[in-house]
Specification:
The complex is a heterodimer.
Chain A lengths: L1 H16 L9 E6 L3 H14 L4 E6 L1 H9 L6 E3 L4 H8 L9 E6 L1 E4 L7 H7 L4 E4 L5 H12 L10 E4 L2 H9 L5 E5 H6 L5 E3 L8 E6 L7 H12 L1 H9 L19
Parallel strand pairs in A: 1-2, 1-3, 6-7, 6-8
Antiparallel strand pairs in A: 3-10, 4-10, 5-8, 5-9
Chain B lengths: L4 H34 L4 H14 L2 H12 L4 H9 L8 H37 L4 H12 L1 H16 L3 H6 L10 H10 L3 H29 L18
The chains are: A alpha/beta, B mainly alpha.
Chain lengths: ~260, ~240
Amino acid sequence: MVRRLSLLLPALLVAMALPVNADNCTLRVAVAASFRPALEQVLPEFGRRHACPVQLSSGSSGVLYQQIAHRAPFDLFLSADRERPELLEKQGGVLGNSRQTYALGLLALWHPKSESNIEQLMQTWPDTIVLADPRVAPFGNAARQVLEGLGLWEKKQTQLARAHNAGQAYLMLDSGNAQLGFVAASQMRAAGRTNFWLLPQHWYHPIEQQLVIPIQSRRPQKAQALADYLRSPEVQAQLRRLGYGVLPAADRGREGGRGL
Amino acid sequence: MTITAADWQALWLTLKLAGLTTLLLFVIGVPLAWQLSQWQSRWRHGIEVLITLPLVLPPTVLGFYLLLLFSPNFAPGQWLSQLFGGPLVFSFTGLVFASVIYSLPFMVQPLLAAFHANGQRLTHAAAALGIPPWVALWKVLLPASRAAIVSACALTFAHTLGEFGVVLMIGGAIPGETQVVSIALYQHVETMEYGAAHRLALMLMGLTTVLLLVARWLGYVLAPRSSNAAPARPVVGVLG
């Protein structure tokens, strides 16, 4: 009995360690956490048109990039920035011309008063200002550009609290730990909040969110179908209602020649 | 091997945080563990489980609830703000407060184990000699539990050094105030500065290794030796 068990146990462990065999139909999508709610809104319609289920894994774009660069088995990568898909492309980790912009993030200012003028409010604000970390998060980088444009970046250094990403910045404000800060318009829309300013888009570089089909994708056609669906006019109209911007007409290869 | 000024600052801040947390937890943990070891009530088990909770709760979740606790929207946050002379969120004080909760089990558990092992016997003997309980704790029990104290302090210190999730939620990554090594390290990785990340990680690991080795040695040296007992082995081992 004991001997049989001693054989059975390793066999069980091995069986548990084997990857769950996803049917050869499921589409695995790695999506930046901030875009997941919007994606979940538009997926059901895609599901009605295509029989196969879509399996979402969300996390920070940086972490997902790491995993995909190390050949994690994803069929499609929706990043919250442009930089990481570009990097994957440079490293030869994506299929041909799959890099495309699928959404445009809009920067919003969460603010307590509705009547004041933004510039004045920022100038005289005495307390903490929350933003996503400019070094790590696209929305943080845009917030930095806004502050620099207003000539406040250096001046307000000691008042800035850096959240790890836009989601966490929202949490810091939502929990009442700060009253003023930079968030994504999509977060405010999703929460049904109205106490925010949409910052003028010429105050910061466009927050382009790009997608790529990783080289290891097992279902590239299906991934491309989802990419096309996300860029379709109907979904783009939906995304605008959810707090995203209008895609630029020429959304690819602004720097002319494309990488590999 | 270049380490930036910001990294040094983060390292120094981390050491300060871990040191202060260990000191505070020692002051809190000794009476707490002693009280628990003396206590015969059924409630004791409930309290012991409560003390263990920070081990179970994912750090980011703990951080999330601290964020709510610190919020000026609610009474506890307002009260804490008055008590500490300012909001705890985005401040070094707040990190110390959080670390004390986060590392509590690492201080209390080893002490509890030691006090349970010797406590009754020694305090009874001391009581028979007419020594008051607090004096017995100070003069008899603590010296007898030296090895456990070294273990508890080393574990607490090391655990706080690597604290990440909690700080991520309540810190705000302010250089010199809340940007500790773990945060700086994560930022290096996120911004793909892998060289800088490796150097900082190496320093942190080297520091921790040296610290734990010293603690082991101290525990060994300080372990009570009697003619009929083998020296107690310190329990510095698993890191949280």
